[in-house]
Amino acid sequence: MIRSILLILLIAGFWKSSSAQKIDHLSSYSDIQSSNYFRFNYDNDLFAGTDQNYTQGFSFELVAPFLDANPVNHLFYRPNDFEIRYGIFVEHIAYTPANFELPEIQIGDRPFAAAIYLKSFMIATDRENARRLTSSVSVGMIGPAAFGDAMQTTIHKITGSKMPLGWRNQVKNDLVLTYEMGFEQQVIRLKDLFSLQAQANVAIGTLFTGAAVGMNMTFGILNSPFKPATNNQGFKLYAYAASIVNVIGYDATLQGGLLNDNNPYTIAAKDVERVTGQFNYGIVLQIKKVYLEYSRTALTKEFATGNSAKWGGIKLGFGF
């Protein structure tokens, strides 16, 4: 236990720089107890009554035994005596300033930005010691190639919302290449009713570079990723909450990509908030092989002249 907690502190402190994933699918409270599953994730700030900052994200996730043959898996640290699953994940994220309907650059607000990438990931679970290691590699693009303009415009036409006219000022095309690791250690468990976990995450790459450390808890009729899957079938209904501190090294959605500096507008490095606070909470329902989740997130301001952000999300998955 002590060694695991020290590992969490080491991961969080080694990179003095936030989590690369915007849609959180690797935390233990979102685990699907299956070696074969598919899940769709959708985030939108409209769930929280806003329309700015992180405005939308969606992803498709697949875990299956045939993905063991993915050559990218050789980049992951695979500890002994851990149960290991491999998956792939396609994610699209988009960001806008508050006055997205204006065609002019919004000085003092965040730039328009969108990214799309393919992620290969590993989930390694040590059930005996109640700990979990995750690793991932993401490759893709940030910029117009991620079709953020078309995506948001289509949704706003369907919903009758104001048209976003500032996408011509978005962060330009650049490479997304990110390596990420996460670790969780269960600290307390009270039967199948309550659990408390310490967590840490580190990412280094061209989209996000940073670290995060925090705690999460679950309570209800629990699904535990640290117990054998045979004990986690049937009906599960539980809530979760996570408090996280992010340390930011680089954020291309604010600062532009690392390789292409030909951007109409970005946030200067000196104006990026290097430490942010984040609170995630939600409710999960699992009925046999069907997974449903509703989540909400609140995040403190990410740059000097910005403001706090909040959004909600839904997840729908099924094992097979």
TrEMBL record:
Pfam family, one: LpxR
Database matches in InterPro entries: LpxR, Put_OMP_sf
Protein name: Lipid A deacylase LpxR family protein
Lineage of origin: Bacteria, Pseudomonadati, Bacteroidota, Flavobacteriia, Flavobacteriales
